[in-house]
Amino acid sequence: MAGAPPPPAAAGAVPVWEDLERHAHVAPPRLLQDGVCVPVDLTVLEEEIRQGQAPENAWLHHPAWTGAQFVRVDEVAQLADAFQSPAARLVARLRSRCIPRAAIALTATVFAFGVLQLVARAGLLGDDASQAVTAFFTHGRVGYDELLLAGEWWSPWLSQLTHGGAWHLIANLVVLSFMAWRVERALGAGSLALVAASSMTVGTLAIAWLDDLPAVGSSVVAYGLWGAVLAVGFRFGDALQHLRVRGRYGFGTLPLFAVLFASSLGQPATTHVGHFFGLVGGGLAAMVVAAETLEPARSTRRAALGNAALAVFVALVPVLVQAAVGRSPVLLAGRRVPIDVPSSGASLSLPTRMADHEVRLLGMPAWTTSASSEAALFVGLVDVRADADLTEALVEQWADATLMSVQVDADTPICPPAWAEQGWQCLRLVLTDPDSGELVDHVVEHLFIRGRTVLRVGWRAGQPTAEPRREALYRHLLASLQVAEPPSLVDAREKLARNPDSPRMQYELARQLARLASTHGSPPWGEADGMLGDLSAREDAWAWDAARLRLELWAQAAESQRTDFRGGGQALADAQDWTRTWLSRAPPLDSGIHRPGVRVLAATGDCEGARAHLAELSRHDAASELIGTLSGDVARLCGAGR
Length: 642
Hints:
The protein is of the alpha+beta class. It is built from 30 helices and 14 strands. The longest helix is centred in the N-terminal third of the chain and has 22 residues, at 166-187. The radius of gyration is 41 Å and the shape is elongated.
């Protein structure tokens, strides 16, 4: 304080008080610090003050400014403007003993939510309250599915208050509290809010877009504050170099950073993506923020409020991003790569994050949006029996796989127009808990029936309720579906091309074509029928194999409701004559000839010929078992009046 006597000289210092008092009227400007008095250049002193390099607890004697007395440097009126420079204000802030209340509030909030979660998990709040609180924290994960697909806009904030256990909470609190304290001391409360918001926004958006797993924990903000501490050291290095706190900013924190980062490498659930981008977000914010500690005293409050308002806007950015991206399947998909499904002959274009997460669903290739997601898009080719009820078979398969009650939704989705024209069928299956009847999941199936094969394309939602964003994304991806010949058919064609005279290769290609022959007259049907007709004209065993397959192909086409095989004309008469010829040649026990042959006659209207052949077979005792099966087929196809 002005007018107060100077402090006593430090031990070993040269006492100069009496000499200074005697010669004050002629003495040059002097600076007294720690009992040592030295001449000082006032211009240099003022510049050092402006740069934040003024000595601490120093006294100035300059007759023109202080009279005959020593006055604390920061109380000299002529130097007041220098002490209002940004660097000087920062140094004064760091030298003061002000309490960083915002850092304490941030730490206390994380601590309170963490304790509440642990108490609820231990069941100490009572059954109902503990379950409600635990259910609340289950929505605290942030990731691609949660933020962008499910639209859980609150997940970036709640994820910072949710922890996996006591040790997770404690480790994050240690780093968070120390770094928040240092950031607020250097930059101010509003700047701390902006740094925390920036690290949370950048880190959680990076997790949602780049990470395989959702994340919880305040480590994203903690690393962001750490980045801010590093940035303060670089931004204000010149001003900090003469302070005792210099080692707590910049590279001084790297040893602690290295220890904690190395310890996290052995933890597979650690979100290194979130940590890195949180650190980057916090560091960049600290580099560019208009810190209130650098503002004049009259502007400090206004700067703090401005930074706090900007922090609120930055914290709301994830909400704006999820609203914009979530409504656009193109943006949700991002960069896509072509995917071939060799087992089905299909191909489609999938986002890279889905291409990296291939799984198996009911034995079919499937892809998920994240490693923890139960939802999946699947593509598969399956064989079905000619007499099977496909919808019933699908319901039974999903029920067996999920142990849920499965029903067909009455509001079956309509196939895309282009798919409907190609003969696709669509249905939605609802999965409910067999005990409570609560909705658990739903499945959408798109079915393309080709003979005895069915191409299944669809998705499992993985959520109790349908997610419009996920469904829009999957429908967008399925628009890229390309259906080609199955690999087995392609392989058969290639083998026949290498050995065109081989009856084995001819038969195998015809068999693969017959699997795809859904209607009479379709390209697979006609190609298969022609090849089998040629093979049946041979004089070896291949003729019999070809005849059996050709009769089965004809029987299925004749029994189909969608075929014109029964249209009459010379082709039909020739087919019936050909069938009778082989029925007459076949031994009584050759069911591969008799059963499809009788079905062909009955289904094409020659019920009299079918019954006559049954009568002929009845003369052979060895065919008694076959007679019973054939009688049922004839009765089914001909009926009582035919």
